[in-house]
Model the fold of this input.
Amino acid sequence: MTTLPHPKSRSPRLALWLFAAAALALPGCMVVQSGAVTSALVSGGAGTSASAPTASDHDTINDAWPERWGCDGKRIKGVIEPVEGPLSDLAGVRLGEHHQLRAAEEERASVARLSAGEPGAGLYRFRAEGPGSYVFVRKLSNPTDPRSPEELERRKDNPDEPAAMFRFISAQRAASGGDVPHLEIERTWFALYDPAPEAPPRGVIVLLPGMFGTPQPVIHTTVRRFRAAGWTVLRMLSHPGRFTQKSRFEIDSADIDAAAASIARTFNQRAAEVAYAVDGAVEHVHHLRPELEDLRHVLLGMSGGAMALPTVHARSPELYDGAILVAGGANFLRINMDSNYASWIDSVELEWGEGSSPAADRDALLEAYLAHAALDSASTATLLRDKPVLMLHAARDKAVPAATGEELWRLLGEPERWIFPVGHELIFIALPMQLDRIIRWLDENIPAGKAAADPGS
Done:
């Protein structure tokens, strides 16, 4: 659950994977495309011109952001709650199809913190995350006091332990009768890593992982390398809890638009929550480390994190100076329909009604979906066209199908792209060997003195 699916650890297979990873480090195994080319090197159609985003693009997206309970009129759509103890004491848990997280004292405290900012909150009922959600719980096997001198010393010596942890909490008002609000809370966990003491400060990397926080070993290596180079890393440990909550949609060929609108509302809510959580987390980091505000801020997305990255940027485009997307794609519904990880993630299920079928109605459903999906990366990617962007693309990707990555590249304005002739898993096995090149790319494309709030600096 916490790593990408991979073959069994038989030594010949492992040796083959290591050989493939080493081969990917050779220049001849990768195609590099500079930005603003006129056609794609990977199948999927002709390229598009890199025009700047229009005012209507901004207006459509701005009108689509959904509200959260207790946050009317507020930019930050939730609250931050500190998390005590070492990261190694937290375990990610996927709730079963029929399991509702039992609301305990921890959940009550989270909602109380959220309602404290709303003077008229009054009475309310709430539910914690439900079937299919992914949450973090504390392991029962380690009763060590997280504030004890022994534990603090152990954390100091562990390179994978963050300097601080916290979670973002929000709530949606569920449809229900009566005057008492029924709330559905949602939480997103973050870890903050300071740069190595001897390294000059370079900026902030906001790291958005793959589904369920994968691939963890690669993320640990990435965090270490960026810290050593002087970067502060804000790591989202996993997507918001309800991002993978189980949803079913019935498709009626007589009313494709209604089904598409319902699916789009769900994906819009999920993408918005990622953006809200990152927005709150970055503001909290600026509170903890005010000296970081004027440094470079770069989004780094992996797999599902790269899919959501354009929407995170769209929430606060003035904050970010550039972006790196690894194995990302546009059009969440198409990815859900075509991904070979769909049964593993098992989040969105389409039930084709009588007289309807994927073969007959697929294109109509996808077209109708995009008309409603203002917060899908297919809509928000154009807002990144005026920023330095680097894509790492797996030409044989079946998890985030390569064609959807091709589409994202076009929507981004065809920025610089490194193409690897491999699938989803191997591009991440090779990623640690590309980190030095990525850091050089950042320094060459985003000057160290550049502040996001001042594009002319």
Notes: The longest strand covers residues 182-193. The longest helix spans residues 256-288. Residues 1-17, 37-50, 451-457 have pLDDT under 50 and may be disordered. The CA atoms of residues 250 and 351 lie 5 Å apart.
